[in-house]
Design goal:
By secondary structure, the chain is an alpha+beta fold. The chain folds into two domains: 159 residues, 2-Layer Sandwich (Ribosomal Protein S5, domain 2), CATH 3.30.230; 124 residues, Alpha-Beta Plaits (2-Layer Sandwich), CATH 3.30.70.890. It has ten helices and eleven strands. The strands form two sheets. Strands 1, 2, 3, 4, 5, 6 and 11 form a seven-stranded mixed beta sheet that branches. Strands 8-9-7-10 form a four-stranded antiparallel beta sheet. Strand 1 and strand 2 form a beta hairpin. Helix 2 packs across helix 3 and helix 2 crosses helix 4. The longest helix has 19 residues. The protein is globular and about 55 Å long.
Length: 297
């Protein structure tokens, strides 16, 4: 066995960034910390009321991930007690499930001394999530652009996005399964081409640190925003206000129900204050990108 009695820290994420549906992720400087200690049986204890409804035994997502990794590599893992503290709003489109999966992968890697490569970790996480965008950003930090078809994985990592972030977080939870049920099974070919073009230009612009172009492309999504935005109070008014305040772009965070806004570095606090005054239904968070992914202490 590897090391016991350690901590794993994993960042929150936002995904899609508009037309980068199920492929683009951004790590955010909100973190979940999991302290790991050897025990006689598996247990998970969360700090804070928000997480109290989650499973606390072997059916917890962090634990099932650890056991999945162990089985995948034909290994046995001894039970652990996990103590979890998190700044990440639960069920609000900030990658809380991907963060749990990322933590589980890293804990298994440490306990079993697997020395997994980053690409292997992202592949395992994508197998469990069903898509790569959130989990790749949680594991690697920065911006990730991923291709995952259920078997093969390729990831481009852009480690230092030069933006500030404002998140508008509503009080209500929207389950990912519920949000995905809003999407059509088919898109017309011409519509899909336009969406693909917007995603390609946005990705190239992010790589060149041209966030003005990236922000414009962010708002040309055809894959999910048209079908989900009706569930966001004052969605179009928020977009207009963001433009008035000089934001690069605004879009749905992951599957929702939060709103992601890319702004100039250093302006996130000022813009968050303005939007909080304009749209009191939402909690407005001024956040920086996380330049690091999962970390072991």
């Amino acid at each position: 066995m590897g090391v016991a009695n350690f901590s794993v820290v994993v960042p929150a994420t936002t995904a899609n960034l508009g037309p980068g549906f199920d492929s683009i992720g951004l790590a955010l400087a909100l973190y979940m910390t999991v302290d790991v200690e050897q025990a006689l049986s598996w247990s998970v204890q969360y700090e804070g009321d928000e997480y109290q409804g989650l499973a606390s035994g072997e059916d917890n997502l962090i634990v099932t991930t650890i056991l999945y990794v162990a089985e995948r590599y034909g290994r046995m893992v001894t039970p652990q007690a996990l103590y979890v503290q998190s700044d990440i709003p639960l069920g609000k489109g900030l990658g809380s499930s991907a963060t749990a999966i990322g933590a589980g992968i890293e804990i298994a890697d440490q306990l079993l001394a697997l020395e997994l490569a980053s690409k292997d970790k992202v592949l395992i996480g994508s197998e469990l999530e069903g898509h790569a965008d959130n989990v790749s950003a949680a594991l690697l930090g920065g911006v990730t652009i991923s291709y995952f078809d259920g078997a093969d994985i390729d990831v481009i990592h852009l480690p230092e996005p030069k933006i500030g972030v404002v998140m508008l977080v509503p009080p209500k939870v929207l389950l990912t399964e519920e949000s995905r049920g809003l999407l059509p099974e088919l898109l017309p070919h011409a519509v899909a081409i336009a969406g693909s073009a917007a995603s390609s230009v946005m990705t190239a612009a992010i790589a060149r640190e041209d966030w003005e172009t990236a922000g414009r492309m962010m708002e040309k999504d055809v894959f999910h925003e048209p079908y989900r935005k009706a569930f966001f109070p004052e969605f179009e008014k928020i977009r207009l206000s963001c433009r008035d305040y000089g934001a690069y772009g605004m879009t749905i965070s992951g599957a929702g129900p939060s709103v992601f806004i890319a702004v100039k570095q250093g302006e996130e606090g000022k813009i968050a204050e303005r939007l909080a005054a304009d749209f009191p239904y939402y909690e407005c968070l001024a956040i920086k990108p996380s330049l690091v992914g999962v970390v072991v202490n």
